[in-house]
Amino acid sequence: MKIQDIEVIAFKYTSRLVRDKEGHAHPGPEHEAVQTLTRITTDEGVEGYSFGGSPAMLEAARLVLVGEDPLNREKIWQQLRRFQRLYGPQLHDYYLAAIDLALWDLAGRFTGLPVYKLLGGYRDKVLAYASTMCGDDIPGGLDTPEHYADFAEACLAQGYKAFKLHTWMPPYDASPKRAVAACEAVRKRVGPDVHLMLDSHHFYSRTEALYIGRALEELDFHWFEEPMDERSMSSYIWLTEQLDIPVVGPETAGGLFYTRAEWIVNHASDISRYSVARGGLTAFIKCMHLCEAHGVALEVHGGGHGNLHALGAMGIPGEYYERGLLHPFYDYEAPQPWLNTRPDVLDPEGYVHVPQGPGLGLDLNWDYINSHRV
Ligand SMILES: [Mg+2]
Description:
With 374 residues, the chain is α/β, with parallel strands linked by helices. The protein folds into 2 domains: 3-112 and 366-371, 2-Layer Sandwich (Enolase-like, domain 1), CATH 3.30.390; 118-353, TIM Barrel, CATH 3.20.20.120. It contains 12 helices and 12 strands. A hairpin with a 4-residue loop joins strand 2 and strand 3 (47-51). Bound molecules: magnesium ion (MG). Magnesium ion is lined by residues 199, 225-226, 251, 301. Magnesium ion (MG) binds at residues 199, 225-226, 251, 301.
């Protein structure tokens, strides 16, 4: 089997998410948005798909992929990784991920197996936590500590067993005291037995982060995520040394799993963090084994088909699937018209189930995609 081509399909959809001046998403008026889908085709008619990808990546991707056996994922991944040196942003880690995930999807369709079984299955379902959007000033939304508490209560009623706050970030008032007040209100409301996590504003100083971390210890929070700029690993070494609460990271730092290795050996966090969006499943597996060898848990950043399959193949924690981002005024459960079924339906016990269709289990609605192409 040989790869014939790789292409990027773009289609329009209606979004109700708007970005603030720092790029964070909040509920807002309907507007048009564009989603991309990477497709890899072969001479045997087997295809692979993944969401994401950009026309910018196609020149380098075609050089590496066309004529290659699509089952040589490791060979392709290593070549793309080396290409990153010269191609830079045209072959961003996110685009590497789109290519790699489409190859995993193709392999699953070729063998008739879901990707997590190809990887080595471990579990069919994983507990989800409700992950909120960042704070805002929408009355009755995520505008006050009490409204975070109201929302936490609503999420637990829906079946979630854990709740993660993203508190206020600029342009809203991101003072450490206000973040702690929201955490206090939620803990008070849900009682002592619910796992709570905080993903705060990401640019606090060391002393601000330490202040919040100590407050979270008093509130028995489960983990503390990205309170400072991750480009300063020494700040995280400083913080992790002083706190008992597990510090999770790095999440957004570049450098794929190589950076996670540096953080582990330098004790810059207690729990590592990775997503298939950073270089694909092939990169994720490397990070997973790295963490296992060091006895470090790995919490998965973000959701979607690829991350669910990664969680399904993990024998180390990975305790939770991140479901969201959620908001009282945003209907996360609304159908995604380009999919016939969404991948991460929450069951009444608070689990999401790994898709069982072949490959990544993308149940694409081609009528919708084709009629909305751009
Ligand atoms: Mg985060």
